[in-house]
Amino acid sequence: MALGGGVVSDIAGFAAATYMRGIDFIVCPTTLLSAIDASVGGKTGVDLKQGKNLLGAFHAPRLVLIDINSFKTLSESEIKNGMGEGIKYAVLTGGELSKMVEVGIKDLERFIELCVSYKKDIVERDFKESGDRKLLNLGHTFAHAAEKLSNYTLPHGIAVAKGLMSVSEYAYRTNKLSFKDKEKIKNMIKAAGIDETMPYKINELAFVMRMDKKADSDGEVSLVVPYSVGECKIEKTSIDKIVEVLK
Ligand SMILES: NC(=O)c1ccc[n+]([C@@H]2O[C@H](COP(=O)([O-])OP(=O)(O)OC[C@H]3O[C@@H](n4cnc5c(N)ncnc54)[C@H](O)[C@@H]3O)[C@@H](O)[C@H]2O)c1
Ligand SMILES: [Zn+2]
């Protein structure tokens, strides 16, 4: 039983995936981020000196048990960190979840339920991330680059929120996302008390993106692009094009 945040469930899950070629495990997430993201979906892993999650396995828990009482001792910054991923789900799904995030969350259990059921549906369709599961990387192309540039002092969820803003700006400038929806996304980030500004220039981000294992040798990346709050699409684009649009 993994009782703790995402670090605990990633390590416990990896141990369970490999011990005796795989044993069952259950997860009791105690951070908002692990409740809505890390505990669900069966990705387990540990970091190596050479990079994040280089040792890992797909191994789904038998049960995820969430008790929101365990969040009472979380610091405000840990709650914001979780909300970064929460806003990502709101942009992906629109509807009830986005309305909730826009006005500030009153019913935390319902919020978690909506995030988890969205991730569960996608993961059940595409466990090994060959298609739709990539949608969950919304905002992450920019977020991963920013985290690396900050030497991992920028928390992941906060980086995701800033990354959502960058990719929204990209979508707006390429005439895919309306100004109104771009503002809506910005307001969701602000409502969560997160500073939406990206502290790095596009050239700095692009330099890191080119080194990412997910970029092809010719600088092609799969970018999840918001077309509206509630509709995102996976597109192949080049890092050069991203720089051209955002500079
Ligand atoms: N497997 C996946 O699909 C997946 C998805 C997202 C993130 N992750 C991984 O999850 C990790 C991040 O998860 P996290 O944000 O939960 O980080 P974490 O596990 O490091 O927890 C954050 C901090 O909160 C503390 N904490 C945990 N529960 C608490 C509680 N109830 N009250 C007070 N403090 C508490 C922890 O000790 C830690 O200091 C990263 O390593 C990331 O790579 C994995
Ligand atoms: Zn993430």
Explain this structure to me?
The chain has 247 residues and is α/β, with parallel strands linked by helices. It has two domains: 2-69, 3-Layer(aba) Sandwich (Rossmann fold), CATH 3.40.50; 75-246, Dehydroquinate synthase-like, alpha domain (Up-down Bundle). The protein has ten helices and seven strands. Strands 1-2-5 form a three-stranded parallel β-sheet. A two-stranded antiparallel ribbon has the order 3-4. The longest helix has 18 residues, at 76-93. The structure holds nicotinamide-adenine-dinucleotide and zinc ion.
Beta fraction: 15-25%
How many whole angstroms does the radius of gyration measure? 17 Å
- What are the secondary-structure elements, in order, as H or E? EHEHEEEHHHHHHHEEH
The name of the CATH superfamily of the largest domain reads Dehydroquinate synthase-like - alpha domain
The residue-averaged pLDDT reads 95
Protein structure class: alpha/beta
CATH topology of the largest domain: Dehydroquinate synthase-like, alpha domain
Helix-residue proportion: 40-55%
Main sheet properties: 3 strands, parallel
Number of domains: 2
> What is the CATH architecture term of the largest domain?
Up-down Bundle
Helical segment tally?
10
Secondary structure tally: strands: 7
The geometry reads as: globular
The side-by-side strand order for the widest beta sheet comes to 1-2-5
Which stretches are low in confidence, meaning pLDDT under 50 for 5 or more residues running? none
CATH class of the largest domain: Mainly Alpha
Unique ligands: nicotinamide-adenine-dinucleotide, zinc ion
> What is the first-to-last residue Cα distance?
47 Å
